[in-house]
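User: Here's a chain of 478 residues. Predict its fold as tokens.
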Amino acid sequence: MMDSMIKKTGITFKELEQNMFRCICEQGRSAMRKFLEEYDKYLGEHRDKKAYRNKGPRKTTIKTIFGEVTYRRTVYEVVRDNGKKEFVYLLDETLELDHVGLISTGLAEQLVRGITEKSYRECARTITELTGQSISAMGVWNVVQDLGRKVCEEENELAQAYHRGEVVGKKKASVLFEEADGVYLNLQGKDRIHYKKGKAEMKVAMAYDGWKKTNEGRYALDGKVATAGFAKAEVFKEHHEAAIAEKYDLDQTKLRILNADGGSWTKTASSGADYFQLDVFHRNKAIKEHIREKEAVNAIYEHLQQKDLDGLFNYLETYKNSLSDDDEIEDVEALIEYFDHNRDGLIPYLEREIELPENDNGLEYRAMGTMENHIWSIIAKRMKHNHTSWSIRGGNHLAKLLAKKCSGRLDEVTEKCKKRLFEEQAASEMIADIIKPGPNYIPTFTGKGYEYPEKGHFPALDYKMQGNRRQLFGVVDV
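Assistant: Prediction complete.
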């Protein structure tokens, strides 16, 4: 009804909404420009005038959720202690624009959240539609590479600090559970040539301290720490161990259990694992892929349930010797080799005689094996499907953001931009001056206003009831 009424006047409600949004964004850009220029003047007035020589204003543009804001700020000449002259912008230093370039914190956060769910093109379109900023897919890519590179640098610095013994987390956990797995992603460009079949393995590792009950029959992992990247096994292990140490006080951890698929790097993904468990999903998958007879599959499962590993390997050897087909024999030999390589992890940790200390945080100990789900939710959902392909650098940077999101720390990617940058009183006065009432200001009235009577008055009731009037009012309760 509303839409059709507006259409008669020549504009739809959607068009009205879009026009008003553009108008508000334009006012926002104007207010932001005025504030930045006023604060630049404030910085200039309070600078060390002997050290900083005013060399005049220069123009620049910053991308915000309102759109691009072009403003002028002053450049100053300063002589450093080594005698070298430099030209600096006090306002740019205050805004710390070197963190993500000429992009506001609000816009950077929108881009980071969007890119973990959507492609660069879709993210750019969404940002353009929902904010006053028009940005291209390449613009989104540039921001993600900038932020991803900084996360990588921080990861390396954290690993070095951990080696120096400077990283100790606050969270205590008697038992720490760890899982590791990988997923192969398609590569593009020059990277595709240098890797076998044009693919590279994205390594993913997870640590947590138990299971928290969220609803009847439903549980969630507590204290998750996720690490992802294309790094070599040893480097990846250092990064993951440092990330764990940043959250957990490992001196308080009595037991560490690793669940993995038995791959060469996954078994060494944890530096301090006390027990290894072969991932049950991969174990059972290997049985089904290598053993063709259903009766033999059931016999293998029965040996595992009875924890009879000697009987299991004897059965596999006997079963292999009973076969005549070369392909079947090779399959059984492959399974025997796989099981022998991971013999110490064939039985799940809950079925072994492992004395588990009481959980410090009131969590439960349950069966491990969440890595397939996390491989999907962290990496594969965003990076493996829809015909996507990656460069090693670009894929690595995005994976760092995805791991941060899984760990519940995505906001940290732009947290350096969240510091209090402006002096409170000066900023408040400037903002109040910028948004003070103008000619189109609509005043807000105060007071009680007109109060309607609690009971209405019907004048007709004031007259005498007689004749037809009595008959008329007789049909209602007066």
